[in-house]
Amino acid sequence: MCAHQVVRPPLHEPFFPEVTARSTLDDRERATVEAVRGLLAGLAPSAVRPERTKALRTPTGAVELRILHACDDTRLALELEDGQATLSWIGGQVRAPWGPDLERALAALLMGRNELTMLLRFGQVHTVETVVWDADGERPRLLHRRLVHGATAAACRRLPGGAGTERMSVSFDRPEGLGAPAADAPATAELRPAR
């Protein structure tokens, strides 16, 4: 065996491997990428692999960080443009400057500390609400309410009476990206208007 063939432990591949010291990022973009890398390393969600994370430059010049679930196509995306960050997931999107609030929301989506509630009538989803919480015992907060586009969805929202619900959560710390909310999830019903 030659010296260059010595078996070595694999080097830890960084998240968003496209971002190197020579990448053309401004200071704010680079700081956000490093913050997200640190968050992923600290949380260590079981279904996030470095090779399933991508940093892309969009046609508008924004930097998009994509995190794909290791076992399916569930995706989180963080787009950085003009000092704003847009966090997107199935069912919602939040735009704000990158900071502790957005970082906590990303952590809650990664670790399954969230609940997506689809409000529906006659089998038609008309509203999707995303609630997140920071840790066990924490009070949940409404992160986003998305009104589904279209005339049918709008008509369903205006009908009197109650709406049916379907609940799920996003998690990068279990084998499936979308699944049932955690059995010990805090009660979130008080965060929604009675409909």
Keywords:
195 residues, alpha+beta, five-stranded antiparallel beta sheet, 19% helix, disordered N terminus
**Could you report the average pLDDT, rounded to the nearest whole number?**
85
* Number of helices, where a helix is a run of at least 4 consecutive DSSP H or I residues: 3
User: What's the SSE pattern?
Assistant: HEEEEEHEEEHEE
Strand order of the largest sheet: 1-2-3-4-5
Q: How much helix, percentage-wise, in residues?
A: 10-25%
Q: Structural class per helix/strand content?
A: alpha+beta
Q: What fraction strand?
A: 25-35%
Task: Walk me through the topology.
Layout: H1 27-43, E1 53-57, E2 63-68, E3 75-81, E4 84-89, E5 92-96, H2 100-111, E6 114-121, E7 124-132, E8 141-147, H3 151-158, E9 164-170, E10 178-179
Antiparallel strand pairs: 1-2, 2-3, 3-4, 4-5, 6-7, 6-9, 7-8, 9-10
Task: Describe what you observe in this structure.
With 195 residues, the chain is an alpha+beta fold. It contains 3 helices and 10 strands. The protein has helices at residues 27-43, 100-111, 151-158, and strands spanning 53-57, 63-68, 75-81, 84-89, 92-96, 114-121, 124-132, 141-147, 164-170, 178-179. A 5-stranded antiparallel sheet has the order 1-2-3-4-5, covered by helices on one side. A 5-stranded antiparallel sheet has the order 8-7-6-9-10. The radius of gyration is 19 Å and the shape is globular. Mean pLDDT is 85; it is low at 1-11.
Please outline what is shown here:
The protein is of the alpha+beta class. It contains three helices and ten strands.
